[in-house]
Amino acid sequence: MSTTSLKVTEGETDFIVPAAEKPCKTWYKVIGDLHGPTSRRPLVALHGGPGVNHGYLLILSDLTKAHSIPLIVYDQIGNGNSTHLPEKMGDISFWTEQLFLDELANLLTHLGVKEYDILGHSWGGMFGSRHAATQPAGLKHLVLASTPASMGLWVKSQNALRAKLPQDVQDILDEHEKNGTTESEAYQAAVAVFYSRHLCTINPMPEPVAEGFGWIKKDPTVYLTMNGPTEFYITGPLKEWTMIQDAHKITVPTLLVNGRHDQAQDPVVAPFFHEIPHVKWANFAESSHMVHFEERKRYMEVVGNFLVDNKMEL
């Protein structure tokens, strides 16, 4: 999307990761003026995957235009324009949640950001919620967009949605998972049917979303190591991930967002609503996992009102 009417700054920051055994950098982009006299607290957007890139969150610059909220996006290590480490494929001791928490803290320090809000989408919301649970002094608001409270609930939801697919599509998924041929064209085509219903209902898929998934194909290291072949066939360490026991430690005002047809169905999000002390929840009836594209106008109104006034206009 175009951000030509806004100040845009791109850069890289060194990210020291001793276990990487080589220099690492985090690439970032700032839309708006971080230190302008009329600027508000910046919004740090954490992309999903793990393994896509920042591009599909640039749409959040709508909030910059409407409310003078500077937007910070970046490519997490292993993804997009940041340092890639294909030699770490399968290394679950390297690709940990803590790695991404450290990277976020490093970026905030580099940019000199003292106070900030976070919007984490999907996987970005997962480690964003963990960051919030540490109660960092500078965090003021949290938006968890289509974020699972646990991967156990996520997998259960994917299986329930999958059971509603046409039987021939289900059969293809079952057969190729049983045979270990999840890289086949037939399997990927069947997954695409699922995604068209529950990842993004816009046809054709918006280019930034498609580009993000293209990065997983270019370098699947992070996704395959942490997650596994697909959203509902999880073989990596994220299979055991949960925030349910720690969600009550999130003390900042929090907004939950999901879509009616979302992969993050209501039961997947609900523990956040029950455990976080100061929380609101907005569900979007015409959306799946990409609510910010599917119901863009209302999404920006709801999120903008929350960040600016801690209100939601439903």
TrEMBL record:
Key words of the record: Hydrolase
Cellular component, GO, one term: membrane
Pfam families per UniProt: Abhydrolase_1
Gene3D superfamilies, per the entry: alpha/beta hydrolase
Signal peptide: none
AB hydrolase-1 domain location: 42-295
GO MF, any single term: peptidase activity
GO term, biological process aspect, one: proteolysis
NCBIfam families in the record: pro_imino_pep_2
Family listed: Belongs to the peptidase S33 family.
Protein's UniProt name: Alpha/Beta hydrolase protein
Organism: Mycena alexandri
Taxon lineage: Eukaryota, Fungi, Dikarya, Basidiomycota, Agaricomycotina
